[in-house]
Write a structure and sequence with these properties.
With 142 residues, the protein is α+β, with helices and mostly antiparallel strands. It is 37% helix and 22% strand. A five-stranded antiparallel sheet has the order 2-1-5-4-3, with helices on both faces. β3 and β4 form a beta hairpin.
Length: 142
């Protein structure tokens, strides 16, 4: 059933990196899965919205599609964000072979999902591994 599949995904999501906080949101910063305490959700939603804005700006500037954003803070935290776009058919390609991308990361009728992993700076390698796991979970939602 759908609820048991969601429970399995939540369990898998929580096991990606126990010392990190992981968060998956849609392009509107609405949480889908999170391992963070409830009080951290608004901040993680703000980070998700910032990734969507950076993605949109980089795309409009012709820099290409951002794959990952890494942020190190002065307080010793590391944040890794990834954007997962659905795979598209060749029918959705424009001239010059670029994927048709509408505002805010929508490909066709599908939305980009934003994964965010927050960890202590000394756990950056673990956070990178967790971010790949978050991307895999995001693909299951698309």
């Amino acid at each position: 059933s759908a609820s048991s599949q969601m429970a399995r995904l939540q369990t898998h999501f929580a096991q990606l990196a126990p010392s990190c906080s992981a968060h998956l949101a849609d392009q509107n910063a609405v949480p889908i899965l999170t391992t963070s305490p409830h009080h951290a959700a608004p901040s993680l939603s703000s980070l998700s919205a910032a990734f969507v804005q950076a993605h949109d700006t980089a795309s409009r500037m012709g820099l290409g599609v951002p794959l990952r954003v890494t942020l190190a803070t002065g307080s010793g935290a590391a944040v890794i964000q990834t954007g997962t776009l659905p795979e598209v058919d060749d029918d959705l390609e424009e001239e010059h072979g670029r994927t048709f991308l509408t505002g805010n990361g929508v490909v066709g009728e599908h939305m980009m999902l934003v994964g965010t992993v927050v960890a202590p700076a000394d756990r950056l390698a673990e956070a990178r591994l967790a971010s790949w796991g978050v991307e895999e979970v995001a693909r299951k939602f698309q």
